[in-house]
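Hello,

Our lab assistant flagged a job as stuck in the queue for most of the afternoon. It eventually completed. Since we weren't sure the result was trustworthy after the delay, we are filing this so someone can double-check. Below is the sequence as submitted and the structure that was eventually returned. Let us know if re-running is recommended.
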Amino acid sequence: MNKNTIIFEALSRKPRQSLLQILSLALLLLLLAGCGAESSQKTQSSVPAATQAPETETITITDMLGRRLELEGPAQKIIALQASEVEILYALGAGDQVVGIGEYCNYPAEAMEKEVLASGSGTSIEAIIELEPDLLIMGTMDQSDAQIAQLENAGIKILVTDPQDLAGTYTAIQLIGQATGRFEEAEKMIGSMKTEFAAMQAKAADKQKAMQGEGARTIYFEVSPLEYGLWTSGRGTFMQEITDILGVKNIFDDLDGWLEISEEQVIQRDPDYIVTISMNFGEGPSPEEEIMGRKGWQDISAIKQQQVFHGDSDQLTRPGPRLVDGAQALYAYLYGE
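-- returned structure --
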């Protein structure tokens, strides 16, 4: 079971799930885990037209676990269990090819009109088989090896994605584009994401030049609140890559992956900015207020300067096209645009 995938799933569940339920599950797994904080108001660009391969053309795909599968033409009845996969499918214009989604998927809104299926430990093999999909797209945490074998024995083709960084995100988009007959759309999407990131990086570099002499500004990503144990992102994650693009320094870039850290470590490393992606359910203090009011944190630069930003957890934790939106929102906060 992959740590990063668990984090994405737990951080992105529907608001109807209580934060305690989500993070209690995560703690049982020794970390956090896609879908569910408040949806972004920013919509995707117009749905691209399909570039379909001939129906009789066999499509051979090697997924992100190195598993080889063959499809007799583009998949027309797809089940996708992770939020990022659903977002990619709809952004590619393949929404009409989707027949079922995982229970925690919430974007785009029209996806929620599809058949909703339990995922993870609650997966119903019978419910998946009943929909007769010609492709099931899933992440590394969705099912056990035994469940996968049961599904494959029932004749269901399975495509596994496992993106951990931006390169992995692009690979997942390519694979889904290939499986749906929308490879050109996938390449355009990847090209657009790379262009947007490059533009942000260039603007951030210009800003940094204008701020010469101030030193590199530092940032701390909080992906789990103090109440349930602090978790953050280190190197080898797409959050780290976004930090690099935006010209700021992650205070935990000397550590790998998604990791649990202590209050003392945050205080000692003294970030200039704190970014929280905890969900806000409208009860009690907001995530920003909770951080600002923590005992012993009052001397952290970000607290003294009131530089605590509540990022959209869906955008910043789902490895898909909306990572660009999350990065743009963070850029606007950092540079006042």
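-- support follow-up --
The delay was a queue issue, not a problem with the job. The result is valid. The CA atoms of residues 207 and 306 lie 21 Å apart. Confidence is low (pLDDT under 50) at residues 1-55.
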